[in-house]
Amino acid sequence: MRRFERINDVVEPVEEYKPGGYHPVHLGDVFQERYEIVGKWSYGQFSTVWHAWDYTLERDVTLKILKATALEKSKELSTFTQLSQAKNHPGKKHVLSLLDHFKHNGPNGSHPCLVFPSMLSDGQVMTAHRMARSVMFMRNISKQIILGLEFLHETDFIHSDLHAANILFNTTQTEYRDLLMPPKFSPVCWLPGIEADSSAPEYLMVSQRPFGFLHDADGSCLTVKIGDLGGAFQSNDKDSRPVTPFGMKAPELFDGRPLDNKIDIWALGCLLFQFATNEPLFPVMRFGCTEEECRQMLRDLVTQIVGSGYVGFAVHLGERLKSDFDGEHTEQFAQFLWPMLQQNPQDRPSASELLKHPFLHC
């Protein structure tokens, strides 16, 4: 039963503020007598993510507050713990690290809370701006993402949720608070006849990630990290199910073949195509479609775009790249992406092999 009036802004579903759901958060709230909420980063199916100020260490941090039902289900904390104990690797700094964690009791239950370094922007914001991407930008961010992926794979983790919003960007700029977009509040209104309680906040907030701030960077001044390990699992964990976004799912996710970290390599190819062109590689429109209709739509797109062979794919890519990519660079980039998009997972390269590709060393 609905309890609230509909909210049309891009915010988390208000009906998920209920026992077991999201924790109600307002600007100025303080957690652990240490972390003050100063802005909104984003939300996901299982959490809201906030920009906070750490009074103890006097620094900006990100506070991720999971739903109360995630307390028993989430493996994210154990994943971060295992990764923190892993050997040093050049890619370790390109995977988001955990600074602190605690549980917070609220009206909807006990919520796992994770504290991370603040990252100024994410790939979803970057691609929404539709700025032309330079060769240098793509080379630099590709190398950092693949280094992070190599670290995950060498520690036997499959990320399974590589998409633009989970790629985080930062720069040497430290005054994060001054760069936040102005807050936009969406009042939470209870429906007539529903008794209001403390399960929901007074308002929801649109993301305050700065729009356009890093979009003209050449990539050399950016630090790139892979974030959101909530869907990550180890290769011997047979009970885990990948949470890969539909349009980035590798073919083997639909036909019952054994899964390995090559599902991340397919998603990486889709992701880098999107960063370079500001368009999804396989734009599946799921609204109003059955699951089988969506699957068939994706199969048709894969056949059309990559099933016709390298030449057809290179033309498809070249038509969508911006002017900074001349013929030689377009060819190099197409040759870089093409192996990631092989329909047989055994034909896809590993992250380590991708790091040796000439495109990253021109």
UniProtKB/TrEMBL annotation:
GO terms for molecular function: ATP binding; protein serine/threonine kinase activity. Coiled coil: none annotated. One of its GO terms (biological process) is regulation of mRNA processing. It catalyses: L-threonyl-[protein] + ATP = O-phospho-L-threonyl-[protein] + ADP + H(+); L-seryl-[protein] + ATP = O-phospho-L-seryl-[protein] + ADP + H(+). The keyword ATP-binding applies. The keyword Kinase applies. Signal peptide: none annotated. This is non-specific serine/threonine protein kinase. It comes from Penicillium patulum (Penicillium griseofulvum). The lineage of its organism: Eukaryota, Fungi, Dikarya, Ascomycota, Pezizomycotina.
